[in-house]
Amino acid sequence: MEPTYQAGRLRTVRRRLNAGAALVGLAAATVTTGVASADTVHPGDRGRLVSADQRTVLATKEDVAAALGAAEYDASTVRFGVDTYRLVYRTVDPSGRPVTASGLLALFRGGGHELRTVSFTHGTTSYRSDAPSSTVEAGFVSSPALAYASAGFATVAPDYIGLGSGPGPHPWMDVPSETTASLDMLRAARAFVSSTGRTLGHDVLVTGFSQGASAAMGLARTLQAGEDRWFRLRAVAPVSGAYDFRHAELPALLDGSLEPKSSVLYSAYLLVAWNRLHHLYDSPGEVFQAPYDRTIEALFDGSHTGQQLFAGTPDTIDALLTPHGFEMMRHPTGRLAGALRVADSTCDWAPRVPVRLYVADADEQAANANTEHCEAGLRSHGVDATVVDLGTPDFAGSRHLGSNVAGTAAIVRWFSRLP
Fold first, then answer.
1. CB 10 within 8 A of CB 310
2. Which own/partner pairs from 273-278 qualify as long-range (CB within 8 Å, at least 24 positions apart)?
3. Of the candidates 26, 198, 336, 388, which lies 20 to 30 Å from 107 by C-alpha distance?
4. What is the pLDDT of residues 113-166, one digit of tens each?
């Protein structure tokens, strides 16, 4: 679900992403609001902007096209240069406690006063510096954010809780906190854009990849429910999501249907992250085999790179999990079953806007059954969602990553056609 989790492809992916930046300039300008510290902010203060730092300047459409082309993204829809900013804002953690989070805002240069907004929620990462607002420090900018912004959309890409500059570990695949972080990032973006003399319009076009596909569905549902008085949902277009962990993704991870190393990393990430939230085990040795039981939790603390995760974990799921760990994942009960019910409910509603579900054939990381189950869930609510088959796109040998590249190109065009 994310570049650093690609067996044998990691260096190639990183090289291509770095080449895809074409970083023209890094501005030092910082806007700080002077609000109280995160320790004193009330949850009702959600979305309040703390600071905004300009990160990159891609002054012309040629600069953006060069960046996207180097990253092997479609540059044919580029119309504008792009400025990017890191926003830090108030939100709440999974327990409802006040916390700060960060995200990337990409604004196109030129155009009208009222901007159409795209929310893009990113795929899995466990290293905080791989989040959208932090990657510019390594010399590249989120290619999907560039693609949407350069086509004429204000693009909002939250880092989620515990990634980017946000404190604490990241609660991976926790849809409620992904949703609150995404909604509050929209609010912070609206506040910042208004300070530039422009404004974000009411409509939000929602998309996301992999982990971000579930986050996108969570945000879309919240927007349609009227959680925010300003923003309203216009369309939904998730890509390669794991919408049904219990009945689609977990069985495929455990039975060898998916790429082995990715299956190891996702299984470990799920158990570690959800144990922090839901207390699934008392000791790592209950679910992880030695010697990994002594090191696995520390690997997912946000400070370890993909390379370190790759080197510090086994190559097969059999070498990772104890018999009890297998049993827990194969037949979830108790707290794990309850958490899965929440995570797997993102397609259990009736969107009143156009919906397209994008999927690659034989995705090696997100089982295709996830999309089939999501389509069926929406259909049970009377929604005829369009499933867009992206074929067999390849990025660094991965169809999963390739679906992000191909899906971004397709969604930019679809969003641009919507009134």
1. yes
2. 273/169, 273/170, 273/171, 273/172, 273/173, 273/174, 273/300, 274/172, 274/173, 274/174, 274/336, 274/339, 276/169, 276/171, 277/94, 277/171, 277/174, 277/339, 278/335, 278/336, 278/338, 278/339
3. 388
4. 999 999 999 999 999 999 999 976 545 689 999 999 999 999 999 999 999 999
Closest by CA position to 242, among listed 210, 209, 266 = 210
Q: Which CATH class is domain 3-243+357-417?
A: alpha beta
- Whether the Cβ atoms of residue 272 and residue 296 lie closer than 8 Å to each other: yes
Q: Where are the alpha helices (DSSP H) in 20-109?
A: 61-70
What is the CATH number assigned to the segment(s) 245-342?
Answer: 1.10.260.160
d(CA 194, CA 362): 44
Q: How many CB atoms neighbour CB 416 within 10 A?
A: 15
- Torsion angle of C-alpha atoms 122, 128, 134, 138, degrees rounded to 10: -110
Residues of the chain with CATH 1.10.260.160: 245-342
Calpha distance 71→137 (Å, rounded): 17
* Predicted TM-score of the model (pTM): 0.92
Extract the tokens encoding 159: 């880092």
For the chain, count helices (H), then strands (E): 14, 10
For every residue of 106-172, DSSP letters joined together read EEESS--SEEEEEEEE-----SGGGSTTTGGGGT---HHHHHHHHTT-EEEEE--TTSTT--S---T
Rounded to whole angstroms, the Cα distance separating 220 from 117 reads 13
Please report the pLDDT score of residue 111 as a whole number: 78
